[in-house]
Amino acid sequence: LLQLSQSSAGNVRCKYKKVLGRAFTTPTNWIRAEDEDDARKKCDENDECVGFHLYPIINRYYLFKHGTELVAEPGLTEDFQAWTKRMLTCEAADQQEEDEEDEEDEDEGA
Length: 110
Fold this sequence. Notes:
Layout: E1 12-20, E2 23-25, E3 31-33, H1 36-44, E4 49-55, E5 60-65, E6 69-71, E7 81-92, H2 93-109
């Protein structure tokens, strides 16, 4: 499994899977974010983060650690939106730019 160093943590970007009608469950909230972009950035930069969800009643985003379960609870989670981090997609932003340039070079050569 690829582990990114903390020195590049500020430039890490990951892909997420959006899940509707489910929420992460834990007795306490871990990290709060102001909006989806803030939640995504904070989760990208933290190796312990498994994903985040929007708590619709209070319009807040919360991040969750690995080991936290994503559940559907009838009567409670229908309006929730959750994003689960796809760990194998995480890479440094400068590496993503290099990969995109390589793809463009390949397209031009075809």
